[in-house]
Amino acid sequence: MAAARSSDDAGPLRRTGRAVGHALRLPFTASARGIRKATHAHGAGESGLGKLIELHAVNGAGDVMITVALASTVFFSVPTDEARGRVALYLAVTMAPFTLLAPVIGPLLDRVPHGRRAAMAAAMLTRAVLAIAMSTFVATGGLELYPAALGVLVASKAYGVVRSAVVPRLLPPNFSLVRANSRVTLAGLLATGVAAPIGAGLQIVGPQWPLYGACLIFTGGTILAFTLPHKVDSAKGERKAQLVRHGEKRPSLRSVGPSVLHGLQANASHRALSGFLTFFLAFLLREHPLAGQSAAVSLGIVGVSAGVGNALGTAVGSLLKSRGPELIIATMLGLALTAAIFAAVFFGGLAVAVLGAVAGLTQALSKLSLDATIQRDVPEQVRTSAFARSETLLQMSWVVGGAIGIALPLNGSLGMSVAAGIMALGALAAVRGLIRASRPAASQHLGRHA
After folding, report:
1. Model confidence at 57, in pLDDT bands (50, 70, 90)?
2. CA dist list (Å): 35 to 28, 30, 52, 187, 435
3. Residues 6+ apart with CB under 8 A from 27
4. DSSP 3-state assignment of 354?
């Protein structure tokens, strides 16, 4: 009788336990199903693009964890003058060697077209290992931290180059490259927005904890990379890019056509502006916060404005698809230049926030439009190498802009004038050529539909 009663009691208890467990898991499983439904929509699940979108979200979350750890050590933990020296040292020890290594990354990855999943997994695993290595030095901010940071940067760029090469292989039917890139990029931005406050919370526990989180995330990314479809490793129809004219001895991007060339010039200006604003405003707002705000809140306002602008530009890009990319790039140059002039003349909290938002939006739309010109003008057989080389140039431009931002005196109007000068140089170099290049492209478009 006692055994039977015990069995009867266990049944309801077991059922209650299952119900409670199901209720606790429901928010997470529902969120996971919602994310999977969004990333796999419009044929992205069947083509494999959905898994790449999820992988890039993991990549963005891991990178921002490392950024939080480095920023807290190199920037926030010391006085402004010492922080400027540390950031300059960071650029010298990590970014400068990277500018020498970056041109080699693309050609090296071109030689392993059959191992793209493994290459992305290796880039993830490398950052997982380096995050643990950095955790032992992050508290002191010693010189040992910087070579590891260089390794993280190189691995991150290697992942980005391979990811650019993979996207064309995973396009769903009737899906343009610019739309696919926008969805991948938007997933990375959303993941960054979610992971950043988590990283900040871990930083409160201890300076090494965001790096532990990054290690865990990148380890998951290593496994996720191998779940991509096998066609990612296919080299069918590809050959190494020969971006040279007849008679040229050195590789050059000029032979890809005026739209791509001028699009690269414009995007280099946007990326230089991004690097400049990142470092200049970080030091300026730390020393001279926005009126009525603390340094942390001031930096947060500008950071959120830039992030919202970037996300909005990416979303708009997915709607514009590949229509008139030259005119879009030219328009974005003019818009960014106007915002920088406005910030220089009316320097203040509102002007800086507007410039941050406009810079994020214009950079995103300009980059997506550059991708569209590469898709349209560069043959499929050599398109992946063109992406690799364009990413290298844009990263170098960001480094140059960042170096200018560190060296400049902390004067707001002066800094915004320099920002306007950067965009003016880009406009002078590219706008006329972009408008001229758009005319034959428009004529061809109309001719095909006549």
Report:
1. very high
2. 10, 9, 13, 10, 40
3. none
4. helix
